[in-house]
Amino acid sequence: MRAPGPWGRRAACARQNLGGAAPHARARTLPRATPPSITATTGRAPGGGAGLHLDSFWLLLGLKMAITAATVVAASKFVERAGPFLGAMVATLPVSAGPAYIFLAAEHGAAFVEKGSVASLAANAAIFLYIALYTRLAQRCGLAVSVGAPLVLWTGAAALIVNVDWTFAGALAFNVGAFAISFLATRPFRARAVPPPPRGRWWDVPFRALLVAALVGAVVMLGRAFGPQAAGVAAYAPVVMVSLGLILQPRIGGGGAAAVLSHALVGLVGFGAATAMLHLTVVPLGAVASLSLALAVSVGWNLGLVLWRRRMAREG
Predict the structure, then answer these.
(1) What's the CA gap between 89 and 306, in Å, rounded?
(2) Would you report the helix, strand and coil content of the chain in percent, each value rounded to 5?
(3) Torsion over CA of 282, 65, 271 and 170, rounded to 10 degrees?
(4) CA-based torsion, 234, 235, 236, 239: positive or negative
(5) Where are the domains of the chain?
(6) Burial class (CB in 10 A: 0-12, 13-18, 19+), 15
């Protein structure tokens, strides 16, 4: 048989490309399906929007639980050694709300944080009322009533806060009014000395840490399922104040625990100022800068109160 010429070889190549090789070429041009494991771990929506990694949520939740538990245990130990005022200054640092807002900013963005922080500011005022009622009840009631009744009050206030379309000015006015009432109601208890606690048991510290961590986890999981206002209120649930009452009242009595929480009122003023800073700056500056400024306001306020109190003690 005669060998094909150049034109014949070109025709054969063309037939091969159109025939046997074409299905493979078409297969290479088809879009590849994304493996289910990638979609599950990146948390990307079908439309392409990126969400928070599922692993990141559990990491931040664990971090929030650990930091809050460590701070509450440290504050309770600090109260037993350094007095109620310094313990209250430690307890009113944003150890619970701070990690919550890091999570909210990472998952939902600046606009969500801006809206949620207004509800958080209103929830801060509800903590003033919680403290005022606790200090009154702790003088003559047992632990269950002293902690439970203020918690019912805060829960009712939180339900109202979630269902109100708060303005920044309205939330700020609520704080001013609640602080004035609470500060006057707790004035007799701030001068009380804390009695020495009984000797600690080996399981005291682990029990305190687990108790606080469980409270934090419950609050975050409940707040996660709802919108920005509910999330903002949940972030400011009185986890630290409830935990301090549960830990301190059995150890140093209702009067000593009331002294600590009544001192916390002035620390919560800085907490409210930090929340206001977050609300005003999160959209123009971004979450990282805004959260950093809010932290600086809270820490700076409490540190200023400690220095002012020491100066007054030296002059007195």
Answers:
(1) 8
(2) 80, 0, 20
(3) 70
(4) positive
(5) 56-315
(6) exposed
How distant is the alpha carbon of residue 301 from its chain centre?
19
Structure token pair of residue 195: 């009695």
Model's pTM, two decimal places?
0.73
Length of the chain: 316
By C-alpha distance, which of 310, 302, 312, 307 is closest to 89? Answer: 302
293: amino acid identity, one letter = L
The candidate with the shortest Cα–Cα distance to 147, out of 247, 260, 252, is 247
User: What is the Cα 230 distance to its own chain's centre?
Assistant: 12
CA distance 29 to 312: 78
Confirm if 209 and 70 have CB atoms less than 8 A apart: yes
Would you say the C-alpha torsion 207, 208, 211, 217 has a positive or negative sign?
negative
Contact criterion met (CB below 8 Å) for 79 and 252: yes
pLDDT tens digits, the chain, 316 residues: what are they?
Answer: 455 555 455 545 545 544 444 444 444 444 444 443 333 333 444 433 344 444 666 776 777 777 767 776 776 676 667 678 888 888 888 877 877 788 778 777 889 889 889 999 999 999 999 999 999 999 889 999 999 999 999 999 999 998 888 999 999 999 999 999 999 999 888 877 666 665 556 666 677 677 667 766 766 676 666 667 777 888 888 888 888 888 888 888 888 888 889 999 999 999 999 999 999 999 999 999 999 999 999 999 999 999 998 888 887 6
